[in-house]
Amino acid sequence: MKKFNKILLVYPEVPNNTFWSFKYALKFLKKKSAMPPLGIITVAALFPEEYDLKLIDMNVELLNDKDIIWADAVFISAMIVQKNSMERVIAACNRLGTKVVLGGPHPTASYKEIHGVDHFVLGEVEDMFREFLDDLENGVAKKLYPLPERPDMFSRAIIPRFDLLNLKAYSSMSVQFCRGCPFKCEFCDIWKVYGNKPRLKNPEYFLYELDSLYDSGWRGPVFIVDDNFIGNKGKIKKWLLPALKKWQEDHDFVYRFFTEASINLAEDEELMAGMRDAGFNEVFIGIETPSMKCLKETGKTQNLKTDMQGAVRKIQQYGLEVMAGFILGFDSDTDDIFERQISFIQETGIPKAMVGLLTALPGTNLYSRLLKEDRIIGKSSGNNTDSISLNFKTIMAPIKLIKGYKNVLSNIYDSNLKNYFIRCNKLIDNLGDTAYFKRKFRIHDLMILFRSVFYQPFTPYGYQYIKFVIRNFIKHRKNFSEIIRFSIIGHHFHTITQERRKIEKIISYMDEKNRYLSEQIRLYSEMVIDGSRELPGNIADLWNQKKEILDKTRNKINKIHVDFRNETIAQYNDAATRMQALFCSFEKDLIKYGITV
């Protein structure tokens, strides 16, 4: 019986051309990925010591055939946004004859659609993983290990295998304190998968994880990846924050924490003060929309109960930067929603505004409702902030919705980043003299500053960058390293938005020229069929025009950043195929009627 001692853990690639990748800011930090794969290194901690484990995070290093050949089995964890990369990994394992074990959020929701996998291990696996390993070793492992009971997180200490990571490749590390969210937003799958009752770790065990991270040598930011960090406010205030503050004091406030929370954070001043004092200085909040009708539609009850603009300002005044998510495409969206989104984002001073089109994810109440209404028209890519495709029939006309969405992005991340830097200034002023940046300035920060000032002034947004840096060097000198952080993040958003505008122009150009050639060929074909003797003398020029159009399009594509070319090349190939079909049909007409060009 084959032994399975050598295990390759693979984390597929997340697309670079997404707001969430922060790739174009990472170049200033000399890092390869924003965050490590916390899920798979937590699973790694469940293996007995005798197993030989190797991790390939495809966001920081290449997966080679020799890695797969080395392994007795390949364990893959993936989110829906990693679907394409995941499928390529599975195909490589199948080609090389290596067993595939698959888990994570995407397989848990859609395992029936995934092929080439030997064993699916779904959901939270802490309580059943050893059973699966025993079955695997004994040759009796099942094809499917369905969703188990949600594990108790309080009574066990599972320290992620940070030692498997190349720490230097990441700009931040990740840990988790609780799972689940008490709210029931229609579009969200978190509460469906992890439950409505937040499950918390023992604070002592959580601090063990920080000890392990500290002992590994990590000295950068730490993301607490909880679905809703304040899902249980009372225990967070009573259990965790005092212990976390003490740990930070003992370690000279080595870490800058950031996390996700709901907007009702603003209702609890003790909680905000506790987070600030423990070293938190950023929180992601799902604002979604300024429309009360849309919030009611999607079940975002926590947002309905507060003045959201006032709540954002209050959170900022406690030293917590608000990063926020916004959604377009609700059934109740009206024509003015695009301007309202822009106004809300600008007026509240939210620099990092993640605006996306509504996506119906499998397993959500939204997906179930739209399926019943016969409105699902496709699968989701999981990349709602950068995809301009819709996977359901919207109430607003799709053309109007997509046009409005593009307008929002081009406004908040405009070509010279003026509006972005205005928001940064507003945020920094709102933060005031708080403990927001309670960390030391390091040599690493100085190197980032040098890379920024030697590059960014010479970009299309250089003038606004210089104004922003000078203003805040004068007004907020204490926080200057964070001023540079906002600048390089702005570069990321600028790159994403402007490259997508180039793509749109190319697609528009190809569509326009396709229509032009189609009309010309239609006219000439009618003249040929009608037996006209007055065909234009330059009919042969159509072939030259087609070649010139395709050559010009290829040149435009070559000027796009390499990360964005694939989808444009696909559009180009489609347009070229349609052109070729037109000309083939036209040539048949010419031959049929005995006309030589």
Structure description:
The chain has 597 residues and is α/β, with parallel strands linked by helices. 48% of the residues lie in helices and 11% in strands. It has helices at residues 23-29, 38-44, 65-70, 83-96, 105-110, 129-137, 190-194, 203-215, 233-250, 269-278, 292-297, 301-304, 308-317, 337-348, 365-372, 398-412, 418-431, 443-453, 462-475, 480-529, 541-558, 565-592; strands at residues 6-11, 52-57, 73-77, 99-103, 119-121, 144-145, 173-175, 178-179, 199-200, 222-224, 257-261, 280-288, 321-328, 353-357. The longest helix is centred in the last third of the chain and has 50 residues, at 480-529. The chain is globular, with a radius of gyration of 27 Å. It starts with 5 loop residues before the first strand and ends in a 5-residue tail after the last helix.
Topology:
Layout: E1 6-11, H1 23-29, H2 38-44, E2 52-57, H3 65-70, E3 73-77, H4 83-96, E4 99-103, H5 105-110, E5 119-121, H6 129-137, E6 144-145, E7 173-175, E8 178-179, H7 190-194, E9 199-200, H8 203-215, E10 222-224, H9 233-250, E11 257-261, H10 269-278, E12 280-288, H11 292-297, H12 301-304, H13 308-317, E13 321-328, H14 337-348, E14 353-357, H15 365-372, H16 398-412, H17 418-431, H18 443-453, H19 462-475, H20 480-529, H21 541-558, H22 565-592
Parallel strand pairs: 1-2, 1-3, 3-4, 4-5, 5-6, 7-10, 10-11, 11-12, 12-13, 13-14
Antiparallel strand pairs: 8-9
Helix pairs in contact: 1-20, 9-10, 14-16, 14-17, 17-19, 18-20, 19-20, 20-21, 20-22, 21-22
